Structures are given as structure tokens and as C-alpha cells.
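Marked as duplicate of an earlier ticket. Keeping the data here for the record.
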Amino acid sequence: MKSILFLTVTAAVVLICLPHNTEGQYLPTWDSLDKRPLPAWFDEAKFGIFIHWGVFSVPSFGSEWFWWYWQGQKRHEYVEFMEKNYPPGFQYENFAPLFTAEFFDANEWADLLSESGANYVVLTSKHHEGFTLWGSKHSWNWNAVDIGPKRDLVGELAFAVRNRTHLHFGLYHSLFEWFNPLFLQDKESKFARDVFATQKSIPELYELINQYQPEVLWSDGDGVAPDTYWNSTGFLAWLYNESPVRDTVVTNDRWGTGSICKHGGYYTCTDRYNPGHLLPHKWENCMTIDKSSWGYRRNALLKDYLTIEELVKTLVETVSCGGNLLMNVGPTHDGRIIPIFQERLRQMGQWLKVNGEGIYRSKPWRAQNDSITPAVWYTSKPEENSVYAFFLEWPTTTVLVLGEPFAVDGETKQRGL
């Protein structure tokens, strides 16, 4: 049987099965939940876009962790920024009316996401500040419908993505909230009480799933509380057994202390996780174009943004090792995706139009990178007997030497994409 080697400029196989549990419903235990097969679409997708947007987009200084760094840790540069630019007594809550989103056009965002070549998008429905981008009944007067934009930002983007693109729609949700009194009281009890979890955070998750039916649920921020406090296994059992997205939803591994890189649908392990070798479990590299922040920063410099060459390198390395890349942008308080983020998204889309054949629906090959020529990474499509070699540095001669493929005279074909 003939094999084909593809070369493109700039294995063990992850098994993905159908999600149905033929032996009955999943139990609220990690042993049972971890046996759920990952829906096939996620591994095939390979590339998604993360969007960090919230009240932190108003000060847009330093980091999306602005509130915590200012009033939690009282970092000098954040305290000084507030003293210089805002009147005495100004509170973080006063930023909310300034989160206006007047230039937010969900259709424009959806079109841009489609141009990026991504196959899924994940929006921060609620970050650690607790402000929800939808009119949650569990977050009275601290949501985008009651204050600020006075719009259902989650609903608008979900509708546009589903009606204008092929992308799967996903939502990020922070379990804990830095300064919520209910959470702080629960934490003070060493989580012997669970008022915040049962009356605030988990009800929000049910609300999100039933109202918006996301196909990615990106959990984060356990607040050093165990998964038993969050009733994570109970919620996930409902999600996999009874929810409206039970057959298609994928979840990550951030469900309480000790769960990361151990339990969940796919692993994230740490932010910007890129191990450089094949893992036995499906994983995702969540990273951000701005090297220092996930939220928009007015004080960012040009050198703070990753170049398209660096982004392509990260994508290729990640996919070669069996991972997905979730690449983040941070919109402004008024709903704009700034030009440099637009440029990077379109550049990725242009590269994928040429080279996406070796990315989408690919599998890791027996070797992830070459043993002779550095900066060469491999993917494969076993059903087509095809191997793709991505060389990220232009050869210094007219000959590219590869140490891993074994060519057979008269049978092996090669072509460039």
C-alpha cells in the first residue's frame, strides 16, 4: 500500500469515540465520569479562540486580575495607577457602568472568528470578579443586562456564531469570586459550609447550560476549594446524562483542588501548557497573544504581542503532540477587538487555508518531531496513509533531510502544500 509524505512550510493516536454510555448513566464519581469518551468533534477541531472580556476591560491596565492585584494584594503599580487616575474612594464596582460595549457587534466578531480558521470559541461568561455577561438571576445588579451595556452579551455572540459560522460555541465560567462575601465566609469555615457553591456558583452553571447550550464548558478558579465543595461530580453527572448538550459537550479539568491534569474531559494542566511530547490523554494549550495578560491592556507595547511566526510554531507543536490550541484575545470595554488582534486572527486563518490539511482532523504520528533536523514537527492521517512534516525554519540548502520517515522506492510519494 502506498504512503504519502506531505511537506508544509512556515504515533500514537488519541482515540476518540462516540459519547454515548452504553452501560447506563454516569455516576457522580470521578471513576465513572472519567470513562466518558470525549466527543469526536473536539479532537478534530484542533484550534479555538478564547475571549477574555469583562469589567476588567475598563481599567485595562496590567491584567484581567486588576481587582485582585489592586485591592487583594495591593501591588504598588496598581495602587499608584488608581491614585493617579481616579478620585479618592473610587471602588472597583464603579467601573461597571463604564463597561459599555457600544461598539460590540456580534456579527462582526463572528465573521472575524470564522476568518481565523478556528473551529470553536470560548467566551468568559464570568471571570473571578463575578460580573456575568448575561442577565443571571443569581448575580443581581452585577451583570451586563442590569448595568453597563444592558445587553445579553453571551446570548448575542452565541446567536451570531451559530447563525453565521461553523464554530462550536463555548463558555468559560469561574467557580469562585475573589471578594464575594458568601465565598469568603465559606472559605473562612474551611469549606465546611457551602452557601456560595450551592446558592450562587453551581446554579449559574445550570443556568448557562440550559439557556445557551454551550458545547465547551471551560471551568476555572476553584479558590483552593475541593471538588466536593463545588459538587463538581454531581453537576458533571447531570451534564453528561441529562443536560441538553449531553452528547456533544466537552469539559476541562478545573473542577476543584487536585482535579487539574487528573480529572475531566480534557486536560489543561496549567495556562500556556505545551509539554513538547505526546500525552496519553487529550489536552489543550490555552495561551494568549498578549504575553502578559488575557484581558485587554492599554499599557501593552508592540513587543508584548506574539508574532504570527511564534503563534504558528505554538499551533504546530501543540497539534503534533496531540493537543488543541486555544488562542486568546482581549476586547476593549466598548466592544472592539483591536487591530493587532484582528491581524493575528486573520494571519492564522491565511496560514491554515494553505496548511490546514495537516492540522484539522489529524492525529499524532509515531514521532512528534524530527531526530535530525530541528524545528520539524509531524502529524498524520492514518486512514489516508499520510504523514505531514511541518518545517518551521527555511532550509539553508535546497535539500531538507528528515530522519524519521522511512521512504519506500516506488511507493512513497511526497508533495508540498
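See parent ticket for discussion. Confidence is low (pLDDT under 50) at residues 1-5, 8-22.
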